[in-house]
From TrEMBL:
Designated name of the protein: GIY-YIG domain-containing protein
Length: 151
């Protein structure tokens, strides 16, 4: 018998964010996001089926939303981190000055690219199970001390 409830969880391999957003499971589950270079887990979230995500729901649907610039959860947190870097903000201002008019979703997309993230996920039986597992992962002490998603 394993010593910790998370010892039995089977996670996918870590994939760069863009690849994960195209190939993750479309089933309910929990996903972990880490910085590629440091390996520090910075975000843990869960996803379940939604009426609007009938074909591409679950973890795949959630990551696809973020890839599209969704301004909540991971997208919101990545943007909050990016705007603290004067060089990143300066690049966005230079785009504006050159006549490139962009929506906020573009800034979120750029923030996620800037963060240089990798994703790993596991499937859950349903959204409620995924929500419980997400809470367990966040409380486990096996993630970064500075999770972006702590509430």
């Amino acid at each position: 018998m394993n010593e910790h409830p998370l010892d039995d969880v089977v996670w996918s391999e870590w994939l760069v964010f863009e690849e994960a957003a195209r190939s993750a499971t479309n089933k309910p589950g929990v996903y972990r996001v880490r910085h590629k270079d440091s390996g520090a887990v910075v975000y843990v979230g869960h996803a379940g089926p939604r009426a609007s995500e009938s074909r591409n729901g679950g973890v795949l649907g959630r990551l696809a939303k973020y890839r599209g610039g969704h301004m909540s959860g991971l997208g919101y947190q990545a943007l909050n981190k990016a705007v603290l870097d004067p060089e990143w903000v300066g690049a966005r201002l230079n785009e504006l000055r050159s006549g490139e008019r962009r929506l906020a979703t573009y800034w979120v997309q750029q923030a996620i690219i800037y963060a240089d993230l990798e994703v790993s996920w596991t499937e859950s039986a349903n959204k409620d199970a995924a929500k419980r597992l997400e809470a367990l992962v966040k409380r486990s002490g096996r993630t970064s001390e500075t999770l972006w998603s702590i509430r």
